[in-house]
Amino acid sequence: MKKKLMSLIAAAIISTTIISCSNSKKESNTPEPAQQEILNYSKFSKGNGMIDSTLVNLVIKDNNVEGKMLWLPDGKDAKVGILHGTKNENGDLNLIFEHFQEGIKSNDSMVIKLTPNQMIIKDVWEINPDTKIKTPALDARDTLEKSTTDVIPKQWNQRLERIFNK
């Protein structure tokens, strides 16, 4: 009887040890894989019989942001390029818009606020490629509406990937 009782106690200790070890493996400090959020925004403006379009695709993973942007006014001076930057502690996006405009590569610095249904371009600074001095571009402030579909056409995605090696 004593042997049986000792065997039961030993079995209970062994199973408790095995259970606690397996639970500690489940509670490891391994971080969960980051969730990726893909967002699309667009705006189409009519004026003087012309249509201006702005299309944006954003990929947010943790606090890192990448994307593509097409600013296509009817006529000349289109800006097409990529976005990259970070999401700050208050949720705003601090981005660099690396783009081509009339064959010249340039960068703009942008602050963007996201709401459930909109992307608000709060501030934009054009960065002089030679001096690196930022100049406010007040006319670039805008509000785009959230879209449920990919707004950047496939041919533009391929073109931007080829140009920017992304």
What does this structure look like?
This is Lipoprotein. It comes from Chryseobacterium polytrichastri. The chain has 166 residues and is an alpha+beta fold. The protein folds into two domains: 1-30; 36-164, Lipocalin (Beta Barrel), CATH 2.40.128. The chain is 22% helix and 49% strand. It has helices spanning 2-26, 154-164, and strands at residues 36-47, 50-61, 64-72, 79-87, 93-101, 104-114, 118-127, 134-136, 142-147. Strands 1-2-3-4-5-6-7-9 form an eight-stranded antiparallel β-barrel. β1 (36-47) and β2 (50-61) form a beta hairpin. It is globular, with a radius of gyration of 26 Å. The model is unreliable at 4-17 (pLDDT under 50).
Short description:
The chain is α+β, with helices and mostly antiparallel strands and 166 residues long.
Order of helices and strands: HEEEEEEEEEH
Shape: globular
Strand proportion, as a percent range, falls in: over 45%
What level of helicity do the residues show? 10-25%
Features of the shown structure:
Lipocalin; eight-stranded antiparallel beta barrel; 2 domains; 9 strands; alpha+beta; 166 residues; Lipoprotein
How would you summarize the topology of this molecule?
Elements: H1 2-26, E1 36-47, E2 50-61, E3 64-72, E4 79-87, E5 93-101, E6 104-114, E7 118-127, E8 134-136, E9 142-147, H2 154-164
Antiparallel strand pairs: 1-2, 1-9, 2-3, 3-4, 4-5, 5-6, 6-7, 7-8, 7-9
Organism: Chryseobacterium polytrichastri
Protein name: Lipoprotein
